[in-house]
From TrEMBL, chain B:
It comes from the Bacteria. Keywords: Membrane, Transmembrane, Transmembrane helix. This is YhhN-like protein. The lineage of its organism: Bacteria, Pseudomonadati, Bacteroidota, Sphingobacteriia, Sphingobacteriales. The chain crosses the membrane at residues 6-24, 31-48, 60-78, 90-111, 117-138, 150-171, 183-206. Signal peptide: none annotated.
């Protein structure tokens, strides 16, 4: 009888050992899984970094070309037009005057555009100034009632890498508002509190379904904002109500 | 009252209590049916005692319960295996085959003879299902934390119960007559296995409730 009991005990222990083996194997699987996940994230971060670097490089090239090439040609044209002396024909003189003013406007716009594209140069003077320049550009575009609270102008600390990403984030958000929001008023608040940079952008546009857009990954704008936030370990909160507008709250550890 | 309470009923009623606490709000029909199954299992035990007292044999009650056990545990394995492999047809064929053996036994020996043969076949089938479950679980590319994986603990309890009971099933005729001290050997084995099974199941209920809470 004790043999049957003993055999039963062995048969009882066998599945217990099997369960222990499955758990141990699963632990190895977990390590492998975590390792794989880390490698994937690292790879994605590298790709993203390269992508942003290439994008930045391209923008700088365009900015340089605009400033040094097209800008110079336009300046030369202005000089040439200025050098023409036609005292007797008033109409021609008026037309040349108009052309000159248009050319000057173009040069100014190209310089402004080149400045915005050349992110690294803008952030050299600090994130506060960079945001200010971006807002000035927005003022020039016109069509919006702006409410600005930029407390970053007198900021003593800086983080060039983060500054560039923050600037691009703001540019992306503003571009999205211009392209999709149909807003009439924009409020931008930028300040720093307990080593956290807080950037808030509110508008009164048509709004959108944020959760749906996030899941469906509609457009590259939103995805790009998320990727950039992820890169600098920041947080983003988007509250959007249809027909009422959208508020974006960004928190970034700073510097 | 105390006549109806023994180790098996106490274990099963405790398990039933935990089942009601942790699974009553579960959305999955399997986990809710499990409460009913444990209730029927405890009910069979009590009814078996009562039946034995009046008619001097309660084997018919346990024989009927074999059908419930075969059907529910098969359904349980189908429920967990279907996430990994398409095995519906196989499970159905094996279930029908076991059911034929189950009914065939009664045709030959009558309802008052304990159907240990079907129980043995059923045990082997469930052990194979359990092993298959572990195999597909480990083979699966996705990682699950087994510490809190309700299905793993449910299957773990079942595989220990049926694999551990293999010897007792094969020597059923011998061990039900033999005593170890004042206890019947069969009861020692089945009570121990039943206790382990329900401990594993109670833990799986807790895991399931935790999983549900996380998902909400």
């Amino acid at each position: 009888m004790s043999i049957i009991l003993l055999a039963s005990l062995v048969f009882l222990l066998m599945p217990i050992f099997l369960l222990l083996y499955v758990r141990s194997y699963n632990r190895h699987k977990k390590n492998h899984f975590v390792e794989k996940e880390n490698m994937r994230q690292k790879f994605e971060a590298e790709i993203l970094k390269t992508h942003i670097e290439v994008q930045e490089q391209t923008m700088q090239t365009i900015a340089t070309e605009l400033h040094d090439n097209i800008g110079q040609i336009l300046s030369l044209t202005t000089l040439t037009l200025n050098s023409i002396h036609i005292p007797e024909n008033e109409k021609v003189s008026e037309k040349i005057g108009n052309s000159l003013s248009l050319l000057n406007k173009s040069i100014k716009e190209i310089r402004g555009l080149a400045k915005i594209l050349h992110g690294e140069q803008i952030v050299e003077s600090g994130i506060g100034n960079a945001i200010d320049q971006e807002i000035n550009w927005l003022k020039r575009v016109g069509g919006y009632e702006l409410q600005i609270n930029n407390d970053l102008l007198d900021l003593k600390v800086s983080s060039p890498d983060k500054d560039l990403i923050i600037l691009r984030l703001l540019q992306e958000i503003i571009n999205n508002i211009i392209k999709h929001a149909q807003a009439t008023s924009i409020q931008i608040d930028a300040f720093i509190k307990n080593e956290i940079l807080l950037l808030t952008v509110k508008e009164n546009g048509i709004g959108f379904n944020y959760e749906e857009a996030k899941i469906k990954k509609v457009g590259i704008g939103l995805a790009s904002i998320h990727k950039r936030i992820e890169m600098i370990k920041g947080k983003i909160d988007v509250n959007s109500t249809l027909e009422k507008g959208t508020s974006i709250f960004i928190e970034i550890p700073y510097p | 009252m105390s006549y109806f309470l023994n180790w098996v009923t106490i274990t099963e009623l405790t398990s039933l209590l935990f089942g009601i606490i942790f699974l009553i709000r579960d959305k999955s029909s399997f986990w809710r049916i499990l409460i009913l199954y444990i209730f029927l299992s405890a009910g069979t035990e009590v009814l078996g005692k009562y039946w034995g007292r009046i008619y001097h044999t309660n084997l018919a009650i346990y024989n009927i319960f074999i059908f419930i056990e075969l059907s529910f545990i098969t359904y349980g394995f189908y429920n967990f295996l279907k996430d990994y492999v398409n095995i519906k047809l196989w499970i159905l064929v094996i279930y029908i085959a076991t059911l034929i053996i189950y009914l065939g036994y009664f045709f030959i020996y009558g309802i008052n003879s304990y159907n240990a043969f079907t129980v043995s076949i059923m045990s082997v089938v469930f052990v194979v299902y359990g092993l298959l479950y572990f195999f597909v679980l480990l083979k699966d590319e996705n990682y699950v934390d087994l510490k809190y994986h309700a299905a793993f603990w449910w299957v773990g309890g079942v595989i220990i119960y049926y694999f551990g009971g293999t010897i007792a099933n094969f020597f059923d005729n011998i061990i039900q007559q033999k005593f170890l001290g004042k206890y019947i050997t069969r009861m020692i084995i089945y009570n121990t296995l039943n206790l382990i099974l329900h401990c594993f199941w109670i833990y799986s209920f807790i895991c399931r409730a935790r999983q549900r809470k996380i998902c909400q």
